[in-house]
Design a protein that fits this description.
alpha/beta; globular; binds manganese (II) ion; 8-stranded parallel beta barrel; 4-stranded antiparallel β-sheet; 356 residues; TIM Barrel
Length: 356
Amino acid sequence: MKMSMRWFGEAQDTVKLWQIRQIPGLVGIISTLYDALPGQDWPEERIKALKHQVEEAGLKLLGIESVNVHDDIKVGAGSRDQYIENYIRTIEKLGRNDIHLVCYNFMPVFDWVRSDLFKVREDGATVFYYDQAQIDQIVPEKMFEQMGKNSGGYLLPGWEPERMANIKRLFELYQGIDETKLFDNLVYFLKAIMPVCDKYDVNMAIHIDDPAWSVFGLPRIVTGLDPIQKLLKAVDNPHNGVTLCSGSLSSKPDNDIPAIIRSLKGRVHFAHLRNTKHHAPGVFEEAAHYSKDGSLDMVEIIKALLDIGFDGPVRPDHGRAIWGEQSLPGYGLYDRALGVQYLLGIYDALTHHMEG
Ligand SMILES: [Mn+2]
C-alpha cells in the first residue's frame, strides 16, 4: 500500500507539504482543486500546477479526492448529460496527467455529518462525534449553519458554502428521489464515464456513505456489503471500485469490515483508515488510529487489504486534535502523522519475513 495524506492546498491547509514530506514512509498526497464546483470541467493548467507543486515537495499526487458529482446527476435531471460530459473531460485531463484515482461520493445534499466536531475526550484531545438523537433535533436546513458554527472558522470539505446557500432548493430537488432512483442514476453516471476510465486507466472509487444510513430522510446507497456488491455488479468494470473507509463503514457496527474487504478483491482502489469508538447504536466518536483506543481491529483490516492484494493509496482519515494544534477540523498534522506511523508499523509487521 502507498501511504498518503490528504492535503487541502496552500490557501486553506494549515499543514505544509514540507511537513508532510518529513513523515517517514509517506509517499504521496491526495488532493483536489478545492475551488472547483461540482459539475465543472477542470482547467488542465490547474491540474498540472497542483501536480507540479506536490512533486516539487518531493511527493507524488496519488489521487484526487474528490471530483464532486453535480446534484443534477444524482437526481437524474435533464441537464445531467452536460455535467457528465464535463466529468468525462475532467477524467480525460487527469488521465493524461498520469493521475489514475478519483474518489467521489453519491450522497444527496449533505456529505458527511457529525453532531460535534470538538468533542472533548478524557485526555483533553478533541474528536468528531455523532449522536443520532442530537441530529434528529436539527432541522435539516439548519444543519449547514450548525456545522459552520462548529468548524472553528475553517472550511469543511463537502460543505461548500456555494452549495449550502441553496439548501432549500437542494431539498426540493431530491423530492421523490428514493434509493432505487438514486442507485439507477449512479449506474447511469458510471456507465457513461467507464469508456474514458478504460482509455486512461482511471479508477473510480466511491466513498462509503457517512454515516452509513439515511439522514434527514435522504436516501443513502453505499452503506455495507450488499449494496456495494450490487453496485459493482451493475457496472461490472474493474474501474468501478470503492474507497474503503473503515470509519464510515464502522458507523454501522454490524458491518464486518475485514469480511467486506475480502469480498471486494480487485475493486478496492483507495483506503481511508481510521478507528471509531462505539457507545450505543447511532452514537460513536472518532478515536486515535491505535486499535485499542477504539472499537476497530486495525490489524485485521490491514491484513484483509493485504490478502486481496491491495497495493493502492491509503491515507489516515480524520485525526484527533491534539497538542494544541489549530487546523481544519479532523485534519491536523500531529495525530494523522501518529496514525501513519501506527498503520505502517502494522503493515511492516505483517509483511516482514526474516531471512534464513
Ligand atoms: Mn473516509
